Amino acid sequence: MDRFAQFAAVAAQEACAQAELKPREMDRYSVHVVVGSGIGGISTLTEQHKVLLDRGPRRVTPFLIPMMLADMGSAQVSMVTGAMGANYCITSSCSSGADAIGVGWDLIRHGKAEVVLAGGAEAPVAPFQPFNRTRDGFVLAEGAAIMVLESVEHAAARGAEPIAELRGYAATSDSHHLTEPNPTGQSAATAVTEALAAAGLQPTDVDYLNAHGTSTPLNDWHETKALKLALGDEAYRIPISSTKSMTGHLLGAGGALEAALCTRVLAEGLMPPTINLDDPDDECDLDYVPNAARSGDVNVVLSNSFGFGGHNSVIVLTRPGL
User: What is the pLDDT of residues 69-100, one digit of tens each?
Assistant: First the structure.
């Protein structure tokens, strides 16, 4: 396995263990897998390209293709867990992991799956300063996050205790530029409002928001603008942070990791900070929880994921039974 697929396989096994889920002892076709990756096995590709140049084509590993393909994260998760339902890889740049979770949510709510192992994995690879005046780009990171998504009925039938409830998901496209966000912020704002609508919630219900927050000049300006458009005056009330300031940017796995972190925010009522935010940009004037975590009563959280190519994906999570 390429390193990214190893991350996915281990994370999935840990998720199943925590959820006390044993796909091999269930109807295996009822357990589906959706794992996003923006790049896939780039480490393998890079290594084997050097082998090609230095030693010739006969020395290139025959495992090159099955190791570099982006879907091998989801494929390996299926194999190590025994899940035999649908098996998808979502590739939508830095929105991949969030979109994988959203697709898993759709599969369950439309009655096509009872259980979905969903998330993201990436292995490309420091300090980070989102929303700071002198920010100049993100720090590359790697890893994986996998969630066990279940229908309420299936979880209740096996006595599973939910950590959080996935209540809403929406995705839009900027239709604008390869790397630059749409300067109006409207498409990203629409993803936020549609995700809230899917959850049956209003901006007044939101207690915390995990920003995409990449620490690039354009993203942070435009994300701030989009949040003001989507949330109105509530944008100034809601604590917002970029956990990428501490984890780095996991690219296609970032949205999945941040969704997982949001479940901990709900469980513990502790909102993570945006570290190294010592000189806030005047244009980034929302409450970005600078440098120190904050306690509070958290029932509803949003997680933003935006990707090159204009992908905008938003997940809404709540405390169970809210």
Answer: 999 999 999 999 999 999 999 999 999 999 99
Say if strands 311-318 and 165-173 run parallel, antiparallel, or are unpaired: antiparallel
Reference 309, options 251, 232, 239; nearest CA is 251
Q: What is the 3-state secondary structure (H, E, C) of 68-136?
A: HCCCHHHHHHHHHHCCCCCEEEECECECHHHHHHHHHHHHHHCCCCCEEEEEEEECCCCCCCCCECCCC
Q: Which entry of 94, 222, 262, 284 is annotated as an active-site residue?
A: 94
On whether the CB atoms of residues 189 and 227 are closer than 8 A, the answer is yes
Catalytic residue among 32, 212, 222, 311: 212
Catalytic residue among 249, 262, 284, 311: 249
| CATH tag for 3-157 (out of 2.60.40.420, 3.40.50.300, 3.40.47.10, 3.30.70.20) | 3.40.47.10
Establish whether 94 is a catalytic residue.
Answer: yes
> Under CATH, which number does the domain 165-318 receive?
3.40.47.10
Q: What is the pTM of this model?
A: 0.94
Domain ranges of the chain: 3-157, 165-318
d(CA 141, CA 155): 33
Token representation of residue 159: 């006595």
